[in-house]
Amino acid sequence: MTTEPHPADAPDLSVVVPADAGPEALRACAASVLEQTLRHSEAVLVDPGRDSATTRACADLAARHPGRVRHVTAARGADLRDTGADHARGTWVTFLGPGERLQKDAGRNLLAAALDTGADLVAGTWTRLPAPGEKLPRGAEQAEPAWQRPLHARTRTVGSLTDAPGLVVHDSLVTGFCVRRSLLDPEARPAVRHEEAPPVGDLLFGVRAALAARTVTLIPNTITTHRAAPDPAADAPARITAAARAARLLARHGHPGLAAARERALLTDHVLPCAAALLSMDREERARTAAQVAPLLAGHLGADALAPLDPVARACLRLLADGDADGARDAAYALANPGTVVSPVVAHAGRVHWRPGTEAAPSTEAAPGADPLDVTELGLQYRPFARLDLLNTVTRATRSQGRLLLVGRIVLPAHALPGRPEVTATLVLTCRDQPARTLTLPVDDIRYAKDALVWRACADLTRLLGARGVGDRVWDPALRVTAGGETLTTPLFAEPETVKPAGALRARPRLGRLTGDTWQPYVTAHHRLAVCLLARRRPARLAEKLLHYATHFRPARALRRRLAAVAARRKRLAGQAVKARVYRTLLLRLPVRKGQVVYEAHMGKQYGDSPRAIHEEAMARGLPLRPVWSYAERPDGFPADARLVRRWSWPYLVALARAQYWVDNQGFPHALDKPRHTTYLQTWHGSAYKRMGFDEARVKTQNDPQRRRLQRAVDRFDHFLIRAPHDADTLGRAYRLDPDKLLPTGYPRNDRLVAAREQHAPRPPLAEALGVPDDRTVVLYAPTFRGGPGHKDAELPLDVRRFAEEFGSTHVLLVRSHYMERAALPATAPGTVHDVSGHHDVSELLALADVLVTDYSSIMFDYALLDRPLIHFAPDLDAYTADRGSYFDLRERAGGPVVDTQDALHEVLAHLDEADPHWKAARARFAEEFGAYDTGGAAAAVVDTLFAAHTPRRRPKPCPASRRRPAERSGT
C-alpha cells in the first residue's frame, strides 16, 4: 500500500473504487480519476483481497501514481465502500461502481457546486451502457433514465427533498454524486453507511445520504458514465427489496408522500420492465422469474399505487403478483403493442374484466386500481370485430412433408362475434422491403373454441413463395379473418422455442439458388413470426461471400460514400434553406400575375377560417381572380375551383413570388420576403387572451437577430383584420403594427355565426354527416394549444371517457384538438364522442354546437356571437397565465362559468338550463367587448377593400361610427 499523503496535501475529492470487478474494470475506473481536470483528487482502490491479479493491479497503480492513487485492503467481511470512505482524505467523497468512469470535468463540477452552495450533497447526471437491443436517441452512445433530465434541468439547491422528489423516488442516487465526508464518519449521528450487502446497500445508501444532508445541490452536468446495463429480470428481486425498504425509510423520516411516490415508482421503474423481460424468456425461465418476483410484490399493489397506471399495466402487475407467468407475458406484449387484446375480456355488471373468472363483486365504485383486472377504461366493449387487434399466438410450428405447418390460437372476447357466425381465414405473407408484394395462401381449418379461434395452415413455401432473392428476402405472415361481414388482419405472435422445431425449408428463388437456398422461420425482435431467405448450402454461401466482397472492398466503399454524398447534396438542394435563397435571388424577379391570390389557413393544414370565407365570397361574385390554395400534407378537402400547391414546393414558391395578393391567417414562412407587387392581407386566427408577439416572455428573452426576424415577418403585412378595439390594443400593439394597417371589419369566418344567431336556422348538414340525433345536446370541446415549438402530442385535461359514461345518453361530445397538436381519444360507446380535429372549418362546428366547453382558447370570442352557453374548463388557468401571461382576468370578464375540476364541469352541464339565463347579460357584454365589429358582412367588406381593382364599382356603405378608428371619429 502507498504511504498516506500529508494532511497539507489532502485532496478536495476522494473517489472510492471497490476493486471487485476485475483488473480491467479497475484500471478503467482509476484512469478516469487520473484524467480529471480537478488535480486535487485521489482514487482510493479498495481491495477485497480475494484475487491476486486484482491485488497486483491495485499495487501497480498506487506505485505508479503516488499521492493520486491509494491501495487499501478491506478486512474480511467489511463493506468495500465503507472501508474506502473510512480511508478517504478528501473533503468530499464519491463512489464508482464496477466499470463506471468519471466524466473528465466531473470532479471540478462537483466541487464548484459544493463550494458555491455549501450543500452536503451534490448530484449530477449519469449514463449507462445500453441493454442488448435497446434503441438509443440519434447520436447517443449511452442511455440515461427518462426521469433524469427534468430533475437536473438546471442548477438548484433544495433544503427539503419534497422540492426535488425525484432524487429519492427513483434510483437517482446510485452514482453520479458526492457527499461531505463528515456525514460518512462512523461516529456521526446519523452515520451514512452501507448497511446492506450490494446491490441493496448501494440503492439505499443514496437515500440515507439525501435524508442526512442539510441541503442538496442538483447540477445538470454528467458525472458518471459506463454504468452497467440493467438486467430487469435478474435485478428485480434486489431492486424491489431496496425500493420497498427505501419507502419505509422515507416514511420513518416524516415523508409519507415521498414514500407513496417511491412505491409507485417501484412498479414503473422495476416491476414492469421485469414483466417486459418475460417476452424474451422460454417457458421454464419465465416461470422461475415469476416465482421469484411474485412474493416480493405482496403489499405493493394497493389501489393508490395502481390508480395512475394504464389498465393493461395494472393487469400485468396483478398477474405477475399471482405468479401467472404466461398471463403477465401476454399483458407485457399488450403494453409493447398498445391496443392489442391478449385476453378474452368479459363484461359483467356493467364492467369489463381481463378474463372470465376475474369478475369482482358488483360495486357502484369503479375507482382506478380498486380492481386491477378491471379494464373497462380500454373501451374494448365498444369496438367491432374488425377494429380489434387480437393476439394471434402460434402454438405449433413444424415441418410437414416439406411444408411449413402452423397451428395458432386467436384470443376472442365474448362480445366480438355474437352468435358465432361462419368464419373463414387466409394466410397472407407480406414482403418486408416491398409491402405492396403479398402472397395469399389458404388456411386448412379455422373454428371456434371456448374463448378463442383456433386455426391450422400448411404453407408450401418452396413452391409458392416465388421471391426473386434480391430485395425480398424477409416475409412477414399474418392471418386475415372474415366473420359476420367483418375482416381483420392479425400478425402471428411466436416464441423461439415454438418455432425452432420448424427447422429450415428448401427455397427456389427466381434468380437462382445462388441468391439463397433456404427459407428459415424465425422470431423477430418484436416477437412475431417471419421467414427469411438464407444461404445455407455451399454454392449460395460462396456467392454470398463474393457479393459481400464486391460491395465492401475499397472501390465499392468509396463508391458508396460518393453516392451518399450525392444523396445528401440532393437533400440539401431540396431543403428549405436553399429554396428560400433561390426564392429571394431569382423568383422574386418574376413578373406579377394579375389577379393571382395565394390563400393559406393554419400553415396549410386546413381549408377554413377567414381565408376560406374570403375565397368563397370572391368566387360567389365571379371576380376575375386566379385563386391558389396551399396545403401542408394532402389536398383532400381543399377547393376544386382553385389551383392547389404543396407548402414549400417549387410551385408554391413560384405562386407566392408572382401573386398579386397574399391572404392567410397565421403567417407565410418568415424566410420568404413579400414581392414589391404583392398586397398581403393577414386575417389572423383569433383575438388575444394570452400575451402574443413582442409581449411574450419567450420573445422578450430571445436575442436581437431573432426579434428582428419576427419584426421583418410582421412588417410584410399590408392589412390586418381586427374584430374589436381589444384587438387593436393587444395584437396591434404586440406586433407593433401601424394603426393604418388595421381593418376594423370583423372576421369573415364569423359571418356564418352571426347569420346562425339571427336566423335561428336548424342544425347544419354536418349533424347528419356525424350521425348526431336531433334529441341530443351537442357539446364541442376545443382546448387551446399548450405546447411549444415542435410539440405534437396533447394530453386533454378533460376525461373524455368519464364524460361519455355520465352524459352519453343525452349528449354528444365533439372533440377538436388544436391544429398544432394531436390527441388520442379513448374508445367510448358508439355515437357518444366524435373526433372532429380533422374537420377543415371550425365555424361549421361552432354553428352545430349547443354548448362550447373550452379553456382560454380564442374560440371563446367567436362562439359568444351565437349567444349560446359557454363554459370555461381550465384546471391549469393560474399556472398557464403565470407562464404565458394574459391581457385580462378571465374569471372577472368571462361570458360563462369558469370551473377547474371535472366534477364542477359536470355539475354545470347537469343544471345548464337553470344556470344559463343568469349568464346571458355577461355573455352579451363579452360578445360586444371582443366582437364589436363582427356584424355579418366582414367577407363582403374585405373583398371590396382588397380586390377593389377587380370589383365592379358600387357605392360603399358608410361605416358606423362605432366601427371607425378613434382618429376618424374625432375628425383628425
Structure description:
With 972 residues, the protein is an alpha/beta fold. 34% of the residues lie in helices and 19% in strands. The chain is built from 35 helices and 37 strands. Helix 8 runs antiparallel to helix 9 (256-277), helix 9 crosses helix 12 and helix 12 (311-321) packs antiparallel against helix 13 (325-336). The radius of gyration is 34 Å and the shape is globular. The N and C termini lie far apart (95 Å).
List the helices and strands and how they pair.
Elements: E1 13-18, H1 23-34, E2 41-47, H2 52-64, E3 69-73, H3 80-87, E4 92-95, E5 101-102, H4 106-117, E6 121-128, H5 148-151, E7 156-158, H6 166-169, E8 177-180, H7 200-212, E9 216-227, H8 232-252, H9 256-277, H10 283-293, H11 303-306, H12 311-321, H13 325-336, E10 340-341, E11 346-348, E12 351-353, E13 389-390, E14 392-400, E15 403-411, E16 423-431, E17 438-442, E18 445-448, E19 452-459, H14 461-464, E20 474-483, E21 486-491, H15 496-499, E22 505-506, E23 518-523, E24 529-534, H16 538-552, H17 554-573, H18 576-585, E25 596-600, H19 609-621, E26 626-631, E27 643-646, H20 650-658, E28 661-664, E29 679-682, H21 697-700, H22 704-714, E30 719-721, H23 725-734, E31 742-743, H24 751-759, H25 766-770, E32 777-781, H26 800-807, E33 811-815, E34 833-835, H27 842-848, E35 851-854, H28 859-863, E36 870-873, H29 877-884, H30 890-893, E37 898-899, H31 902-910, H32 912-915, H33 920-930, H34 938-946, H35 966-970
Parallel strand pairs: 1-2, 1-4, 2-3, 6-9, 10-13, 25-26, 25-28, 26-27, 28-29, 29-30, 30-31, 32-33, 32-35, 33-34, 35-36, 36-37
Antiparallel strand pairs: 4-8, 5-9, 6-8, 7-9, 11-12, 14-15, 15-19, 16-17, 16-20, 18-19, 20-21, 20-24, 22-23, 23-24
